[in-house]
Amino acid sequence: FELCTPRTPLTKPWVDNLRNILARSDVNFVITSEGIDVSYADEGKNVVIVSKLFGKEFEFYRCDARISAGVEVRQLYKIVKTVQANEVLSMRIQHDKPTTLIITTFNGPTGCRTTYTYELIEEVPDEEVKIPDFAFPRSMTIPSGIFQKKIHDMDAYGVELAGRPDPLDLS
Questions:
Q1: Which tens digit of pLDDT belongs to each residue from 68-89?
Q2: Do residues 104 and 90 lie in contact, with contact meaning Cβ atoms separated by under 8 Å?
Q3: Which residue intervals of 71-160 are DSSP H helices?
Q4: Contact, 101 vs 13, CB < 8 A?
Q5: What is the value of pTM for the model shown?
Q6: Closest Cα to residue 16, out of 70, 106, 100, 80?
Q7: Which of 38, 62, 92, 115 has its CA 20 to 30 A from that of 168?
Q8: How many CB atoms lie within 10 A of CB 65?
Q9: Phi, psi angles (nearest 5°) of residue 120
Q10: In sequence order, what are the residues at sequence separation of 6 or more whose Cβ sits closer than 8 angstroms to the Cβ of residue 167?
């Protein structure tokens, strides 16, 4: 598996949102030829989060075989938050080291290259989250930056997200 993108300002908020939204920090990243999937459901299956990064949206993306990688999101965030907006970010898992995620940043103007090795955790025991087809009577679209700010604000004040009696689709 390998990906590369100079659009780090789009990648960092994804990891940050996962860090802020997930009740537990360890999840499985399922990496396929189509992209990276993260799914999470709380114990009561009241909160379901499904997120996908499409491989075709990266400047370079390759995955030869399906990988289920256990990731401790808060630890991954500590690495990803150091990436600057003008740096190229690459991530890879080598065939000979399937438990290690190698993260490299490259700053073109300075020529500085930094490599981090992140040891993946064991695959998190979790049943696959299947979401049935359904429709909501209302839909609301908000920019991800605003959604991220609201999550940060609620986290700072100790507010818990709870379901509403009338379903709301946050697209």
A1: 898 998 889 888 888 888 899 9
A2: yes
A3: 73-80, 144-156
A4: no
A5: 0.71
A6: 80
A7: 38
A8: 10
A9: -70, 150
A10: 136, 137, 138
